[in-house]
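TL;DR need structure tokens for one chain.
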Amino acid sequence: MKRSPTFLITVLCFGFAFFYVPILSMIVYSFNNSRLATVWGGFSTKWYVSLLSNDAVINALVLSLKIALISATFATILGTMAGITLARFTKFRGRTLFSGLVVAPLIMPEVITGISMLIFFILMADWIGWPGQRGFTTITLAHITFSMVFVTTIINARMVQSDRAIEEAAMDLGSRPWQVMFDVTLPVISPAIVSGWLLAFTISLDDVVISAFTTGPGSTTLPLLIWSKVKLGVTPDINALATLMVLTVGVGVIAAGVILNRAEKRRLADERLAFRSND
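>> reply
TL;DR here they are.
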């Protein structure tokens, strides 16, 4: 049975409204003058001002940003290496096991991942005395392990779509493998690398479950702080804090989209110029 365009558009609008209306409501009520999150008491920005003087929020934000930056960078490096390996080296001993280990965290519940990380760190502390306590280091390692899987998937998909003939042509012209990697392969997949880094950064910044299992005293990330406050009830300061996170992620996504779009146009222009010069 063929669906009419009106019906499909209506369903699409309903889906977008179901997702975005609650976010817009949260943003609007973050400017609420009342202490009750669901009762409008007039327009006010006092909750944003109060966040700037809240040491717990500032410390949690700084900690989350440090963890996200470090974990996203290392996850991108490791994920890029793994993605290139899976795409370019199709036959090596243990490839099936390696590929399964890459896919497993994508389908495994985060609770299981968090528990396994917790047990691992406890055993490591018993065997070699490290880590002495759970905190910044353990959270960062857990986020790297979890988010690099997503980077690997993105890089692998981009490598499969890329034209391998360009790399072979570079080697025929005398380039060494490492030169081909840095001069040809990495520039071609650079949009995927940037996308993977942004995804890893976002995953780390808003993670709650894995962070809850791998954190310790004095290492409360921003999502964990929000979660602990929400247990006592949603207040306008929580709405303001969540609004700032939404705006930060939104600005990052828009900026990344613009950068990737320009990079893709530049790449296509370079390819057309190269083809014309060959003709």
